[in-house]
Amino acid sequence: MAHSRLTHALDTGALLLPEGRIAVFGAPADTDLTALEADRVEVISRHYPDVVHWQDRGYRVLQAPEGHYATALVHLPRAKDAARARLAEAAACCDLLLVDGAKTDGVDSILKSVKKIAPVDHVLAKAHGKLFWLAAPDLSDWAAAPREVAGFVTRPGVFSADGPDKGSVALAEALPPLAGHVVDLGAGWGFLARTILASDKVSALDLVEADLDALDCARKNIDDPRARFHWADAATFAPKAPVDVVVSNPPFHTGRAGTPALGQAFIRAAARMLAPSGKFWMVANRHLPYEDTLAAVFRQVDDMGGTPGFKVIRATKPLRQAG
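Below the sequence we write its predicted structure tokens.
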């Protein structure tokens, strides 16, 4: 884990941090930052649940770095282009660059790429990963750049950055024309929203997304006065009034591991925000165990088809005790 490598490096004296501010990029909520002096640390995060986590623990949290830092610690995301973009952002604003990642996150590949650009001071291998550091090199060639895919703008690191994923396509094809106030829960970069807004009977659409990069893409992709954009945790989002329809392709991964509890939280959130006559449309991989959760918070659950890999479900008559 990240904390064991950083703590070990500091405790053994292998790593000596310069005086001054420390920027920590992309630290997941389960990261242990206690080896660092909290009053020197600024957490840079664009993932809403992580932002809330670090704010609750008293850290200053920003969505982008402010000014220059003595040290930047980068936690590597899984996607290689997103990792490069994060490193470029960090290296541009610090003197000493620290990079931490698990082998499963591609740290060996990133280390090899960095070594081609600049000499690395030290590499610490521990707990199925590596922590390495060096004087911040020029990584401007790795900076994030928007891309256009099938008429949509995406960015490195957002879910399904190379185009609409098969689940969203299956759900879009199954959706009838919707009406009333709709919530797109976990809206990503706006693929489903465009399908939803094709119906002129939709009066309002709330796009709810935890990844600010994805939501910024959605703002570019959805040019419709009925659309409202919410940077929020879908599991806790609460509209001002009960809504008519919730549509969702919920995530089911945190890192490399499948986490069905994420999708289950989306289901319970949908039931809470729907009016008594409301409808919930969702898509999921066929192997995911969502049926018990659906049955617990909806009176009626119907299989609406889908594809060999994905099931499309419509749930109606949310139960009052949902949530």
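Residues 253-257 have pLDDT under 50 and may be disordered.
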